Structures are given as structure tokens and as C-alpha cells.
Amino acid sequence: METLDLEGKRVIDVGCGDGHLVRHMARRGASVLGVECSARQLAKARAGETVGAMDIIEGVGQALPAADASADIVVFFNSLHHVPAEHMETALAEAARVLVPGGTVYVSEPLAEGVFYRTCRPIDDEAEVRALAYRALGACPQLRMEREFTYLHTVVMRDYEAFRERIISANAEREAKFAAMDGEMRALFAANGTPTPDGMEFDQPMRVNLLRRA
Question: Could you give the CA distance from residue 43 to residue 8 in angstroms, rounded to a whole number?
């Protein structure tokens, strides 16, 4: 919210998950289209309240269901590394296609470090795909890197079940791993989290890249 001027802007949230960020941006005056491919996440997103000018549809980053030059901002929030590696560059090219000239791509990605990363790593070590996502940022000739910065995000999980659901929602294949490693994952959750009145807190370093459409 400190980085993007959202008032009156047309925004596409690629990989919108449960729609939380779609609603957050819509409350701040943006017209937001959330795009999600996971049936589990899509159901959660559509079950939530409608806030302002927002819509949530099924789709993928490498073939965005939006017209050319129809958006001022495209957001990948924790989602670019979930695009299949062979399609990451295409997803960024698609972001450039749907942007107006001078439009912004906002990419926020978790770094492969920190307590939350180490807690999730036994289920799915994303170090490689996160590195691939970062490298893909320089592969789209229509997008110019404008700014990069990092920040520390505090992830708050109400309990272990909420943690498990969050990780599974992004990739259903992780469910079997959680079942097989239930004892180990519960122990990691308890050992790595910091208890608070709202649940367990975990630090996760993040990197933001802002790119501009030529």
C-alpha cells in the first residue's frame, strides 16, 4: 500500500489465492480483477464478500484472461514462483501485454531464508523455483526494472491446522506429504513459531521488484 498508488487504477492480481489482497486493494479505490487457477483457492475467493469494484475469475498467469492494455498495474504477490518454470517468462510477457504503456508490474516474492521458509522446507523446498522466478524478471524486453527492495513479513498462523491449510492451498500435492510427516511438521511448527495472543508468528524475508512497461 505504501508502494502503489491504487486510487482509480485497474489492477490484475495474478494468483490471487483466497482473494484477500483483491479485497484489500479494492477497499483502497482500485478496480481489481483476481485471477486464480487452484480450484480450492478459487472457491475460497468467491465465497468472500464483494468489495467495491472487484471480480475473481479462473485463469493462469501464462495466458491472462484480459485484453491488451486493459490494466494499469499487474500484481504477482507470492505467486510468480508458483507459475511452472517453463512459463514464468511467458507470464511476465502476458503482464506486459495487458498493461497500458507506462504501467507497473509489482512482484513480491518470499526469499529462500528465514524461520517460515525453514518451517515449510520439509514439505516443499522452493529455493530453486524462487531463484528461477527472480531470474525471469530480466527476461521480458517490454518491462524495465525500476526498483528493488526487501522487507521482513511476519506470518501469523492461528494454529497448526491453519498453517497446514495455507501451505496445502497453494499446492494440493503437499497434502500427502503433510500426512506422512505429521509428527515432524507439528514439532517444527511448535519449535519455530513465537506464541502470541493471535497464534504463532514466523518471520519471512520478502523481496519486491517494480517493473515498468515501456
Answer: 27
